[in-house]
């Protein structure tokens, strides 16, 4: 019964999830875009064994910042979330593989929200819906 009452708010729920994830991604991506921070992030990636660390540092910064903006707008939601899912699989199983579960909870939550949004779509309140973009 309550499910029927609240089902009319599904699109609003998707907007809230997109906005929350977008804000978190922007918050983490914006500082990385600054040249000194990007260099430091690249050095850190190289230090943990990533090949082409500057390339991956730029990719992560762009996905986080511009992907976050896209999620807030509901633009290219499927593709942005696919990139975030891939990024957080690497974070969970490569970067943080030796950390305890408690230390991975936030990363797991971001992964789960991105995966859910990837499957559920952006909802009515989005540019994807406005422009009838399937993906």
TrEMBL record:
<comment type="similarity">
    <text>Belongs to the DoxX family.</text>
</comment>
<keyword id="KW-0812">Transmembrane</keyword>
<feature type="transmembrane region" description="Helical">
    <location>
        <begin position="42"/>
        <end position="63"/>
    </location>
</feature>
<keyword id="KW-0472">Membrane</keyword>
<dbReference type="Pfam" id="PF07681">
    <property type="entry name" value="DoxX"/>
</dbReference>
<keyword id="KW-1003">Cell membrane</keyword>
<protein>
    <submittedName>
        <fullName>DoxX family protein</fullName>
    </submittedName>
</protein>
<dbReference type="InterPro" id="IPR051907">
    <property type="entry name" value="DoxX-like_oxidoreductase"/>
</dbReference>
<feature type="transmembrane region" description="Helical">
    <location>
        <begin position="69"/>
        <end position="94"/>
    </location>
</feature>
<dbReference type="GO" id="GO:0005886">
    <property type="term" value="C:plasma membrane"/>
</dbReference>
<dbReference type="InterPro" id="IPR032808">
    <property type="entry name" value="DoxX"/>
</dbReference>
<keyword id="KW-1133">Transmembrane helix</keyword>
<feature type="transmembrane region" description="Helical">
    <location>
        <begin position="106"/>
        <end position="127"/>
    </location>
</feature>
